[in-house]
């Protein structure tokens, strides 16, 4: 049985809400199915794969359970109709100015009272565990998936990206959440005019016999994993973020992605065979997954192969862009982008490229995105709510 609570608005009118913690298979199924009903008439909604959601709440598969705690809840009226859902969690690796918990996978009818009830329920759960603030809507996991509330650019989401109705912004902000940081998604049409700076730099570097641009090939993943690792570690060390990755980890990642890798859309630049720059892209999986209704069993895997073969995928996603320090600010990105763009225009069906989000607290990466001749076409927000309402709110510090 769930816990029974009451909402009032106005004071003379009472609505009962039942909070149920997700424990059994029926509740797990409802957690997945409620958004499908909620977004039934929204053509932009793409149902995430059920397995991607369930793995987050599986303590044997999600490493964050080693350093945290997570629970899921459904919120129903007296007729047992679902009004909303949420996950609430504590991640001890999520270091903030004050002990901060998270809420995610929030979905709700367009009713402020119901949303307020859900937020209050999460607040109480987190306070009982020593938290002093909550961020949402975020993931009990890495930032690369299911992170943020969509506030602008209500188009079909990329794979792993949150999607929601425009009214969610009001539900959060009316409760008292404030924007901790905005998540900017940059995009550009493949066939749009390329910046003259790019073509000029391409012309300049094309005359250098020591430089070559090569597309990444699935039949030589070990070499490209080595090259990726070298560029990534040098480029990100220069940004002062201390991010390093091992070649073995990159190779495992590449092998896992092999079924969806495209031989024409990821590019590396070499100086006398030494890797100096890379531009990594993948097809947007949602352009295929949207036909699978969230399922990925044997039948759906066969259907996926059929869809992948016969349905054009016109959107690719920029994952990583990097230039080693010695070649930064020399226009090598123009050479690489124009080499790759000319090639993929001839050999693929892609019409749009969109980058994964960049936080507004990261001006260096935003500058790189802008230099790639892109524009912001989608925004999400990571919201924060301080439990002490007298405490001064501070946005994410600038890197």
Topology:
Blueprint: E1 3-8, E2 14-21, H1 25-38, H2 50-56, E3 68-76, E4 82-91, E5 100-108, H3 112-127, E6 133-136, E7 149-152, H4 167-175, E8 178-189, H5 196-206, E9 211-215, H6 221-238, H7 247-257, E10 267-271, E11 274-283, H8 286-289, H9 298-310, E12 315-323, H10 332-347, E13 352-355, E14 358-359, H11 363-371, E15 375-386
Parallel strand pairs: 5-6, 12-13
Antiparallel strand pairs: 1-2, 2-3, 3-4, 4-5, 6-15, 7-15, 8-13, 8-14, 8-15, 9-10, 10-11, 11-12
Task: Outline the structure in words.
The protein has 399 residues and is α+β, with helices and mostly antiparallel strands. It is 32% helix and 27% strand. The protein has 11 helices and 15 strands. It has helices spanning 25-38, 50-56, 112-127, 167-175, 196-206, 221-238, 247-257, 286-289, 298-310, 332-347, 363-371; strands spanning 3-8, 14-21, 68-76, 82-91, 100-108, 133-136, 149-152, 178-189, 211-215, 267-271, 274-283, 315-323, 352-355, 358-359, 375-386. The protein has a 15-stranded mixed beta sheet that branches. The chain is globular, with a radius of gyration of 23 Å. Residues 6-14 have low confidence and may be disordered.
Q: What share of the residues does DSSP label as strand, in percent?
A: 25-35%
Radius of gyration: 23 Å
Biggest β-sheet description: 15 strands, mixed
Q: Low-confidence segments, ≥5 residues, pLDDT <50? A: 6-14
What's this model, at a glance?
With 399 residues, the chain is α+β, with helices and mostly antiparallel strands. The chain contains eleven helices and 15 strands.
């Amino acid at each position: 049985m769930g816990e029974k609570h009451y909402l009032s608005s106005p004071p003379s009118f009472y609505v009962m809400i039942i909070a149920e913690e997700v424990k059994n298979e029926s509740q797990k199924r409802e957690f997945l199915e409620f958004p499908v009903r909620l977004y039934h008439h929204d053509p932009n909604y793409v149902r995430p794969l059920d397995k991607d959601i369930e793995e987050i709440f599986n303590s044997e598969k999600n490493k964050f359970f080693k350093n945290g705690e997570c629970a899921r809840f459904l919120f129903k009226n007296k007729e047992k109709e679902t009004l909303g859902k949420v996950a609430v969690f504590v991640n001890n690796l999520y270091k903030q100015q004050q002990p901060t918990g998270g809420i995610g996978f929030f979905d709700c009818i367009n009713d402020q009272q119901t949303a307020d009830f859900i937020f209050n329920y999460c607040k109480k759960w987190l306070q009982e565990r020593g938290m002093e603030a909550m961020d949402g809507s975020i993931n009990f996991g890495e930032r690369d998936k299911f992170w943020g509330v969509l506030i602008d650019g209500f188009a079909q989401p990329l794979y792993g990206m949150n999607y929601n109705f425009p009214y969610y912004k009001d539900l959060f902000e009316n409760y008292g959440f404030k924007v901790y940081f905005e998540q900017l998604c940059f995009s550009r049409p493949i066939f749009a005019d390329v910046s003259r700076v790019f073509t000029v730099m391409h012309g300049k570097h094309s005359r250098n016999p020591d430089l070559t641009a090569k597309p990444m090939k699935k039949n030589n993943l070990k070499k490209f994993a080595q090259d990726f690792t070298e560029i990534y570690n040098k480029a990100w060390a220069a940004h002062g973020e201390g991010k390093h990755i091992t070649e073995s980890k990159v190779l495992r990642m590449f092998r896992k992605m092999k079924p969806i890798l495209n031989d024409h859309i990821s590019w590396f630049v070499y100086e006398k065979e030494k890797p100096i720059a890379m531009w990594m892209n993948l097809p947007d999986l949602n352009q295929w997954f949207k036909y699978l209704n969230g399922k990925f069993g044997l039948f759906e895997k066969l259907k996926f192969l059929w869809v992948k073969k016969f349905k054009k995928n016109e959107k690719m996603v920029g994952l990583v862009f990097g230039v080693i320090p010695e070649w930064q600010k020399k226009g090598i990105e123009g050479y690489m982008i124009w080499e790759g763009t000319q090639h993929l225009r001839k050999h693929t069906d892609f019409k749009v490229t969109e980058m994964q989000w960049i936080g507004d607290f990261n001006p260096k990466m935003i500058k790189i995105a802008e230099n790639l001749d892109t524009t912001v076409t989608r925004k999400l927000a990571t919201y924060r709510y301080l439990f002490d309402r007298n405490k001064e709110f501070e946005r994410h510090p600038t890197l």
